Each structure stands twice: as C-alpha cells, then as structure tokens.
Amino acid sequence: MRLLTLLKGKIHRATVTASNVDYIGSITIDAALMEKAGIVEGEMVHVWNLTNGQRFITYAIPGEPDSGTIQINGSAAHRARQGDKVIIAAFIITDEKVEPKVVLVDDQNRFVKYL
Fold first, then answer.
1. Which residue segments constitute the domains of the chain, with CATH numbers given?
2. Percent of residues, the chain, with pLDDT higher than 90
3. Is the pTM of the predicted complex or chain greater than 0.85?
C-alpha cells in the first residue's frame, strides 16, 4: 500500500475580510464555502497569501453561512490583512483516488463555480 497526501478541497482567491490577532488561533471561513470545498470544522488547512507571499497552516472554524467571512485569527493575523487574496487548501492522506473540490469565489467570497 502506498499512501499519498492529495488535495481534497480548495477555496481559490478568497478575499480576507478581517484579521484578529487577539483571537486564539485559526481561520474563520464562511460555513457554506467550507461545505462546498469539503473542509470540516477543526480540519488543518494551508493558507497561501497571494498578496504578500506568506504561507501558514492553521485549522478551520465555520463562520456564518453565506456571510463571505474569511477571518485570519491569532498569530497568523500578522501574515494576512483585510483585502488580501488567499488560497485555502485541505489535504487528505490516502491510497485511493481523490477528486478535489476546488471552489472559485468572487471578490465578496461568494461561490462562482467549481474549477
């Protein structure tokens, strides 16, 4: 058996709506977008900031559904500011084929289409 780490879900070019250094860790993501991308509460996610090149790993917290919320919390808030464009990606370790759910959003973080 050969295990691979494969992309499971991604939210592409989301806009950061807020940063809160005083919050205890994580990234708050619109729950509807999490569902569309197959990301679950507490799951480890990679965040790649297209605006400044910063990358970090944290865990997902669901925000209000259909709110467009993408809030960077805790120390990671030093790596992304309101208005930054980010990619949020989740991976799975498996020996099976995976069809990733790649979600494209508009500037208000509303679902546009699957890529």
1. 4-96 (2.40.40.20)
2. 97
3. yes
